[in-house]
Protein backbone atom coordinates (compact mmCIF):
# COMPACT_ATOMS: atom_id res chain seq x y z
CA UNK A 1 0.00 0.00 0.00
CA UNK A 2 2.67 2.50 -0.96
CA UNK A 3 2.48 5.49 -3.25
CA UNK A 4 5.28 6.29 -5.63
CA UNK A 5 5.95 9.50 -3.68
CA UNK A 6 6.59 7.39 -0.58
CA UNK A 7 4.68 6.62 2.55
CA UNK A 8 2.06 4.03 3.40
CA UNK A 9 -1.63 4.82 3.04
CA UNK A 10 -3.08 5.49 6.51
CA UNK A 11 -5.66 2.98 7.73
CA UNK A 12 -9.36 3.96 7.42
CA UNK A 13 -9.69 4.47 11.18
CA UNK A 14 -7.20 7.38 10.98
CA UNK A 15 -9.38 9.81 9.03
CA UNK A 16 -7.45 12.98 9.95
CA UNK A 17 -4.19 11.38 8.87
CA UNK A 18 -5.82 10.16 5.66
CA UNK A 19 -6.99 13.71 4.87
CA UNK A 20 -3.46 15.08 5.33
CA UNK A 21 -1.99 12.20 3.33
CA UNK A 22 -4.33 12.62 0.36
CA UNK A 23 -3.87 16.39 0.19
CA UNK A 24 -0.09 16.06 0.33
CA UNK A 25 -0.04 13.52 -2.50
CA UNK A 26 -2.32 15.51 -4.79
CA UNK A 27 -1.12 18.20 -7.18
CA UNK A 28 -4.54 19.53 -8.15
CA UNK A 29 -8.11 19.68 -6.97
CA UNK A 30 -11.60 20.62 -8.07
CA UNK A 31 -12.55 23.96 -6.54
CA UNK A 32 -16.27 24.69 -6.42
CA UNK A 33 -17.58 28.24 -6.05
CA UNK A 34 -20.96 29.93 -6.31
CA UNK A 35 -20.95 31.61 -9.68
CA UNK A 36 -21.17 35.38 -9.93
CA UNK A 37 -21.24 35.22 -13.74
CA UNK A 38 -24.21 36.48 -15.74
CA UNK A 39 -26.54 33.59 -16.55
CA UNK A 40 -24.97 31.34 -13.89
CA UNK A 41 -25.29 33.61 -10.84
CA UNK A 42 -25.81 31.56 -7.67
CA UNK A 43 -25.20 28.20 -9.36
CA UNK A 44 -22.35 25.88 -8.36
CA UNK A 45 -19.30 26.18 -10.59
CA UNK A 46 -16.34 23.78 -10.35
CA UNK A 47 -12.91 24.33 -11.85
CA UNK A 48 -9.53 22.59 -11.65
CA UNK A 49 -6.68 24.31 -9.81
CA UNK A 50 -3.10 23.34 -9.11
CA UNK A 51 -2.50 23.11 -5.37
CA UNK A 52 0.28 22.27 -2.95
CA UNK A 53 0.67 22.00 0.80
CA UNK A 54 4.45 21.87 0.52
CA UNK A 55 7.29 20.30 -1.45
CA UNK A 56 6.87 16.61 -2.34
CA UNK A 57 8.17 14.04 0.09
CA UNK A 58 7.26 12.73 3.51
CA UNK A 59 8.20 15.85 5.50
CA UNK A 60 7.11 18.72 3.26
CA UNK A 61 3.40 19.02 3.94
CA UNK A 62 1.88 21.76 6.07
CA UNK A 63 -1.72 20.66 5.42
CA UNK A 64 -2.55 24.12 4.08
CA UNK A 65 -3.73 23.99 0.44
CA UNK A 66 -2.00 26.87 -1.38
CA UNK A 67 -3.06 28.22 -4.79
CA UNK A 68 -1.60 30.64 -7.35
CA UNK A 69 -4.40 32.82 -8.68
CA UNK A 70 -5.20 35.72 -10.95
CA UNK A 71 -8.26 37.98 -10.99
CA UNK A 72 -8.56 37.15 -14.70
CA UNK A 73 -9.72 33.62 -13.83
CA UNK A 74 -13.51 33.11 -13.78
CA UNK A 75 -13.59 31.23 -10.45
CA UNK A 76 -11.47 33.92 -8.81
CA UNK A 77 -14.03 36.47 -9.96
CA UNK A 78 -16.67 34.36 -8.18
CA UNK A 79 -14.49 34.30 -5.04
CA UNK A 80 -14.25 38.11 -5.06
CA UNK A 81 -18.03 38.19 -4.52
CA UNK A 82 -18.24 35.19 -2.17
CA UNK A 83 -14.99 33.66 -0.87
CA UNK A 84 -16.71 30.47 0.30
CA UNK A 85 -15.75 27.35 -1.64
CA UNK A 86 -15.19 23.63 -1.47
CA UNK A 87 -12.09 21.78 -2.63
CA UNK A 88 -12.07 18.10 -3.54
CA UNK A 89 -8.85 16.10 -3.89
CA UNK A 90 -8.62 12.42 -4.75
CA UNK A 91 -6.02 9.68 -4.89
CA UNK A 92 -7.49 8.98 -8.34
CA UNK A 93 -4.87 11.39 -9.67
CA UNK A 94 -2.07 9.21 -8.31
CA UNK A 95 -1.03 5.74 -9.44
CA UNK A 96 -2.53 4.20 -6.29
CA UNK A 97 -6.12 3.72 -7.51
CA UNK A 98 -5.13 2.48 -10.96
CA UNK A 99 -2.65 0.03 -9.47
CA UNK A 100 -5.38 -1.41 -7.24
CA UNK A 101 -8.01 -1.17 -10.02
CA UNK A 102 -10.18 1.15 -7.93
CA UNK A 103 -12.66 3.27 -9.81
CA UNK A 104 -12.28 7.00 -8.98
CA UNK A 105 -15.77 6.93 -7.42
CA UNK A 106 -14.96 3.92 -5.24
CA UNK A 107 -14.62 4.76 -1.54
CA UNK A 108 -11.38 2.76 -1.59
CA UNK A 109 -9.93 5.43 -3.91
CA UNK A 110 -9.82 7.97 -1.09
CA UNK A 111 -11.03 11.49 -1.63
CA UNK A 112 -11.30 14.46 0.67
CA UNK A 113 -13.76 17.34 0.55
CA UNK A 114 -12.69 20.56 2.24
CA UNK A 115 -15.10 23.44 2.84
CA UNK A 116 -14.01 26.92 3.78
CA UNK A 117 -12.88 30.07 2.03
CA UNK A 118 -10.08 31.32 -0.17
CA UNK A 119 -7.94 34.11 1.27
CA UNK A 120 -4.92 35.96 -0.08
CA UNK A 121 -1.83 35.27 2.01
CA UNK A 122 0.30 37.98 3.60
CA UNK A 123 3.87 38.63 2.45
CA UNK A 124 5.55 36.31 4.95
CA UNK A 125 3.19 33.42 4.17
CA UNK A 126 3.60 34.13 0.44
CA UNK A 127 7.21 32.90 0.77
CA UNK A 128 5.90 29.53 2.05
CA UNK A 129 3.17 29.40 -0.60
CA UNK A 130 5.65 30.14 -3.38
CA UNK A 131 8.00 27.38 -2.23
CA UNK A 132 5.10 24.94 -1.87
CA UNK A 133 3.60 25.67 -5.29
CA UNK A 134 6.70 26.22 -7.42
CA UNK A 135 8.34 23.04 -6.08
CA UNK A 136 5.46 21.01 -7.56
CA UNK A 137 4.46 23.29 -10.43
CA UNK A 138 7.67 24.90 -11.77
CA UNK A 139 5.90 26.13 -14.91
CA UNK A 140 4.07 28.68 -12.72
CA UNK A 141 7.24 30.77 -12.46
CA UNK A 142 7.04 31.47 -16.21
CA UNK A 143 3.38 32.46 -16.36
CA UNK A 144 2.76 36.00 -17.70
CA UNK A 145 3.64 38.63 -15.09
CA UNK A 146 1.00 41.02 -16.45
CA UNK A 147 -1.72 38.66 -15.16
CA UNK A 148 -1.06 39.90 -11.59
CA UNK A 149 -0.75 36.47 -10.00
CA UNK A 150 -1.07 36.21 -6.24
CA UNK A 151 -0.75 33.49 -3.62
CA UNK A 152 -3.80 32.35 -1.70
CA UNK A 153 -4.73 29.57 0.65
CA UNK A 154 -7.79 27.52 1.32
CA UNK A 155 -8.90 28.40 4.85
CA UNK A 156 -10.36 25.07 6.00
CA UNK A 157 -13.50 25.08 8.19
CA UNK A 158 -14.91 21.59 7.50
CA UNK A 159 -13.43 18.31 6.28
CA UNK A 160 -15.10 15.15 5.00
CA UNK A 161 -13.14 11.98 4.29
CA UNK A 162 -14.35 9.14 2.10
CA UNK A 163 -11.77 6.36 2.22
CA UNK A 164 -13.77 3.21 2.92
CA UNK A 165 -17.29 1.83 2.69
CA UNK A 166 -19.86 3.06 5.22
CA UNK A 167 -20.07 6.76 4.43
CA UNK A 168 -18.23 10.00 5.03
CA UNK A 169 -16.14 10.68 8.12
CA UNK A 170 -16.04 14.16 9.60
CA UNK A 171 -12.66 15.55 10.66
CA UNK A 172 -12.28 18.89 12.45
CA UNK A 173 -9.58 21.32 11.34
CA UNK A 174 -8.01 20.91 14.79
CA UNK A 175 -7.76 17.14 14.32
CA UNK A 176 -6.47 17.61 10.80
CA UNK A 177 -3.66 20.01 11.69
CA UNK A 178 -2.61 18.01 14.75
CA UNK A 179 -1.50 14.96 12.74
CA UNK A 180 1.27 14.37 10.21
CA UNK A 181 0.43 12.77 6.86
TrEMBL record:
Cell compartment(s), UniProt: Secreted
An annotated GO cellular component: extracellular space
SUPFAM superfamilies registered for this protein in UniProt: FMN-binding split barrel
Keyword Amino-acid biosynthesis: no
InterPro entries named among the record's database cross-references: CREG, CREG_beta-barrel, Split_barrel_FMN-bd
Keyword entries, A-Z: Glycoprotein, Secreted, Signal
The keyword Iron-sulfur belongs to this UniProt entry's keyword annotation: no
Protein origin, superkingdom: Eukaryota
Protein name: CREG1 protein
Amino acid sequence: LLLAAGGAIPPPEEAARMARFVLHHCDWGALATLSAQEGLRGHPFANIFSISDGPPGPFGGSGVPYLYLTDMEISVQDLEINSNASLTVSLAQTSYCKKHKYDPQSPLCAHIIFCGSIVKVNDSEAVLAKKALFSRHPEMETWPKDHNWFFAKFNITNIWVLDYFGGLKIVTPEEYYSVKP
